[in-house]
Give the backbone structure.
Amino acid sequence: GENVEQHPSTLSVQEGDSAVIKCTYSDSASNYFPWYKQELGKRPQLIIDIRSNVGEKKDQRIAVTLNKTAKHFSLHITETQPEDSAVYFCAASKGWAAGNMLTFGGGTRLMVKP
Amino acid sequence: DSGVTQTPKHLITATGQRVTLRCSPRSGDLSVYWYQQSLDQGLQFLIQYYNGEERAKGNILERFSAQQFPDLHSELNLSSLELGDSALYFCASSPQTVVNTEAFFGQGTRLTVV
C-alpha cells in the first residue's frame, strides 16, 4: 500500500519567516495530495490541495509544489503568523479506484514565535 | 463547522467493554471514512463506506466493525476494548466522485479506555 513520510516532525520559526514541510510518497498511482491543518483539540481542516497534473498551486501565503518523478511534494508558508501554529498533515490518495481514502504523513508541529 | 457530526464527543470506558461511535455525514455525501488518531500513530485510515456498502478497508482490527445505514449515517463499533484503543476517532465524508475532492472531518470522538 501507499506510504507517506513527512519531515520535519517539529518546526519552529520566527514570526514573518517562511516554513517548508516536505513529504514523500511511495505509490506512483497516487494522484491527489491534500494538506490539512489541525489545531489543538480540533478537527483536521483542508488548507490546500494539488492534483498530479499540476506542478504548483498557490493560495495567498500558502503554496504547494509537486514533483511526480521524485514522488515528493512540499508545503510552503510565507510570512508566518502566530495563528499558523498547528500540526500540519500531508496526505496522498489514489483516487476513485481505491475509494479516495487518504494516507497521511506523520504530521509536522509548526510553532511560530512572536 | 464542517457539516459532519460525531457523537459522543468524549467516551470513557473500561477494558473489555464495547462502544459505538456515531457519525452523520454532510448532506449529500455518500462516502464516510473512519480514521484513528493516536499520539504515536498519526491519522490512520480504518474503513470506508459508500452508499451503504464497504468500499475500502485499512488497518482496522477484527475487534472493530462499522456499518452505514440507509440514511447514510455510520457507526463504528469497538469491542473487547484494550488500553491501546484509547485515541481520537474521526469520521470524514466526501461527495465521492471520480475526481478526488476534499474530505470533511467531524470534530472527533475521544475514547479513553481505563
Q: What stands out?
A: The two ends of chain B are 31 Å apart (CA to CA). The CA atoms of residues 40 and 87 of chain B lie 10 Å apart. Chain B touches chain A through 26 residues (CB under 8 Å). Chain B has a mean pLDDT of 93.
